[in-house]
Specification:
single chain, about 270 residues, alpha+beta, globular
Length: about 270
């Protein structure tokens, strides 16, 4: 064999393994890239769950305990002992009968009653005062909560915003949370349960209860949950001592939809 032929064969022998290794590496890299570009649904759900866990949450529950109003407060692992919140609730005329302050993602729970009556808080105005006091306290001591809460953003485009109504025929802002209204009868059928999911704002529960009273409903109990920018209201009510019939359900749905979706014009303006 000539020297030239030997050199060519030797070069081919050396290059062949390297080419095979390079091909394997290329295939391996291609697999890795595809895997990174297509995360599993489980991973996406885990990310979503983490974000939800870090969301500031305020829940006011009047149904779980027969003797006290339960207030749950959570914001990931950002909250401390909440002594400032305890002081603020006391200033609102509330007795804190029991408190469970937890670390991490578990909610901090307060069992409260009205100081004057020693009973649970049932008036919508008081419930709204409690909710807004907690939210404002959270924004004061944990400003990072403002990234999630509508109350922490300025300006906020909500129903009743006069600046947004300066041009009533112009384009409307999209709501932060799409409004959803559901009405169903309770298990015993003696009353109706109205749930309203919408963009949070100050005075929301009071305004919803006022709208329901305008259509002659008797509001038995009301509670509200705040989860980031979303408000979730639950109202227990009757009409003439009974659960709402289909006609009343439609009337109430229309009234609430109109109120929550249309920006109101100030009553002192005339046209």
């Amino acid at each position: 064999m000539s020297a030239v032929a030997f050199s060519t064969a030797a070069a081919a022998a050396v290059c062949a393994p390297r080419a095979a290794i390079a091909a394997k590496q290329t295939r391996r890299c291609a697999v890795v890239v595809r895997a990174a570009a297509s995360p599993s649904d489980a991973a996406a759900a885990a990310v979503s769950a983490d974000k939800a866990a870090a969301m500031p949450v305020v829940k006011i529950d009047n149904m779980s305990d027969p003797l006290a109003t339960i207030i749950d407060i959570s914001f990931g692992d950002c909250l401390g002992s909440l002594m400032d919140t305890c002081a603020a609730l006391t200033k609102l005329g509330l007795n804190i009968n029991r408190a469970e302050v937890n670390a991490g993602d578990n909610p901090n729970r307060f069992y409260v009653t009205d100081t004057k009556t020693s009973e649970k808080v049932v008036k919508s105005e008081q419930i709204e005062d409690i909710r807004m006091t907690i939210i404002q306290n959270m924004l004061k001591y944990h400003p990072e909560a403002g990234a999630f809460l509508v109350e922490g953003k300025t300006p906020v485009n909500i129903p009743g915003n006069k600046e947004a109504d300066a041009n009533p025929l112009g384009a409307r802002f999209m709501p932060v949370v799409k409004t959803k209204i559901n009405i169903e009868s309770s298990k015993g059928g003696s009353r109706s349960i109205i749930t309203v999911e919408t963009t949070d704002r100050a005075g929301l529960l009071v305004d919803i209860v006022r709208t329901l009273k305008d259509v002659n409903l008797n509001v038995i109990s009301a509670e509200i949950d705040t989860i980031g920018p979303k408000a979730f209201d639950i109202i227990y009510c009757t009409y003439q001592g009974k659960a709402l019939n289909k006609s009343m359900e439609q009337l109430v749905t229309n009234a609430l939809t109109y109120y929550l979706s249309v920006r109101e014009v100030a009553t002192d303006e005339s046209y």
